[in-house]
Design brief:
The chain is mainly α. The protein has 10 helices and no strands.
Length: 186
Amino acid sequence: MGPCFLEAARWRTTRSVAAQLARNSLCCKGLVGASHTAVAQRRFRTRNPVMAFPRQLHGLMRALAFLTRVPMPDEAFEGGLRQTAEDAALFPLAGLVAAVPGALVLLITVWMDGGPLLAAALAIVATIVITGALHEDGFADVADGFGGGHTSERRLAIMKDSANGTYGTLALVVSVVLRFAALAAL
């Protein structure tokens, strides 16, 4: 076991780079084999700080990746894609984490004497950017479906349609105005 393992651990690179170092490094010539590569990956995995996170934190990272636009490391998805239902219990915590940037924008804007209206507007924009407007899109689809469909099949067809209708647009406007008013009143 040569310095290639130390290089991989020091560089904090991905497992694939660690395996490549194990295969191609001069110190490993003659020791190349499937078991040697597996040893390199296993040794590197214990030194990688992301791999040391508990299983629940990986679930939280998967929940954040599902509910927001925040990029997550590949190590959170190791072992294949899990069902979203397995991480659904962590969705409230992911929502709390996703709300932190908006809350920080609100606090900083108020602290800098930006006024409550500007602070509320910027906080709403920050949360929409973090979530990628995922929640607004879903809310508009539901409003369109229940407002425009008379049968369950028609409601589902309307919800699957990507175009926003009158009910969806009105629901979005009401939602943003209510959030704006609530944050400005704080």
